[in-house]
What we know:
Blueprint: E1 3-4, E2 7-8, H1 25-45, H2 48-53, E3 69-71, E4 77-79, H3 88-107, H4 112-126, H5 135-149
Antiparallel strand pairs: 1-2, 3-4
Helix pairs in contact: 1-3, 1-4
Amino acid sequence: MNPVHGIFFHLSVPSIQRYDRGMNKADEKRIAAKLARILTMLCVRNTKLEDLHAGTTPVSKTGDYSDVMVIDAKGREIPWTDVSHLDDETMRALMRQIVNRLYTFHLMADDPGLRETIDRWAAAAGAWADPEIDQGLLGSVTVEKKAGNS
């Protein structure tokens, strides 16, 4: 893999091309969007996150779930908005799976089976809304750089 713009993007997958320093901005954004969608579909959405999403969704008349209560085994009524929806072990398992999938994606991008999977899911992921720059992520990167330089 070749580092480009500080990130590894050398993928020989037909539906995802390699970043090139001479590439125009529109092509760079189009390819980054396609890669972001595919990575999200294969490495985040199709994980244990689906198990969490598969449960029964409570009905809310207010729309913000402030009118929904959970009754726990001790009989406590807890507002839905205050309930932890992931325990620590579930969160750790989810993060491990996502990291392992991202790792596999980057190391095995040339694998014919993975390429078939990418091509199979590319259309569904391509129908999602266009991604946007996450200013919160940029802010955290800026803060980390400043802290490291101090």
